[in-house]
Amino acid sequence: MIELGVNIDHVATIRQARGTYEPDPVWAAVEAHLGGADGITIHLREDRRHIQDADVEKLRELAQIKLNLEMAATDEMLAIACRLKPQMAMLVPEGRHEVTTEGGLDIVAQEGKLAQAVARLREAGIVTSVFIDAELAQVEAAARIGARVCEIHTGPYAHAFYTQGRDSESPAALAELTRIRLAGELVSRLGMRFNAGHALNYFNVQPVAQLVGIRELHIGHAIVSRAVFVGLQEAVREMKRLLREAQAAAPGGSR
């Protein structure tokens, strides 16, 4: 059964806009859990623009479902992860001027450095994931450095879906979906877990959720946006229902 990891970064974004104590990301994690989330994702950025160190510590202590810590492969972030030991750490590229993570991690260009980061996390007992573009060379490099999970970047698919009339059967969307599928198939063949995420929402998620072998989707902005109107529990519940419906309708039924 496919799992849903809910990214709650933008709950902290709202809090930081006023520099106050609310809304509390820990409360958001509880609401997401009650709505059916299988995990919580947070990104501790170097500039601390949303999630703060104290949030990570409280969530590691209090969250009752899997905590996935997104992070750059820096000495500072590796030290934090090794101290707090989230259930999963996902290495991502990070730029100070980007609004959100843009593009996947280029493992091929920095294989030695990233292999050391993965080894350090593995020694601390942390499952290591890498966020990569749907490129076969990057998948192969992820396997070489010892990653256990590959999260395939779905942003280009989401962009094609949106610009082509929100039509999942448009040639552009289908081409991007094929790239994700082929990358995911290689991830599975190489013995890693196939996850996906970025820019997925209530309209474009089902074709991705139907891909064979996919284990987990990480979705944040769309869920937090809908929660403004319906509440976080209901927003998570609606997304989880879409994932289940998609897998039930896929060839071969629910996996």
Ends: how far apart? 5 Å
Strand order of the largest sheet: 1-2-3-4-5-6-7-8
Class based on secondary structure composition and strand pairing: alpha/beta
Please give the number of β-strands: 8
CATH topology: TIM Barrel
Instruction: Estimate the mean pLDDT confidence.
Output: 95
Large-scale geometry: globular
Please tell me how large the radius of gyration is: 17 Å
The biggest sheet amounts to: 8 strands, parallel, barrel
Low-confidence stretches: none
Question: Strand content of the residues, in percent?
Answer: 15-25%
Q: Any idea of the CATH class?
A: Alpha Beta
Number of alpha- plus pi-helical segments? 11
User: CATH superfamily membership, which one?
Assistant: Aldolase class I
Domains counted in the coordinates: how many? 1
Classify the helix fraction into a percent range.
Answer: 40-55%
Instruction: Please state the second-level CATH architecture.
Output: Alpha-Beta Barrel
- Output the helix-strand order: EHHEHEHEHEHEHHEHEHH
Description:
- This protein has 255 residues and is an alpha/beta fold.
- The chain has one domain: Alpha-Beta Barrel (TIM Barrel).
- 49% of the residues lie in helices and 16% in strands.
- The protein has eleven helices and eight strands.
- Strands 1-2-3-4-5-6-7-8 form an eight-stranded parallel β-barrel, surrounded by eight helices.
- The mean pLDDT is 95.
Summarize the structure.
This protein has a single domain (3-249), classed as TIM Barrel, CATH 3.20.20. It has eleven helices and eight strands. The chain has helices spanning 9-18, 25-34, 53-62, 75-84, 111-123, 136-145, 155-163, 171-189, 205-209, 221-230, 232-249; strands at 3-7, 39-43, 66-71, 88-91, 127-132, 149-153, 193-197, 214-219.
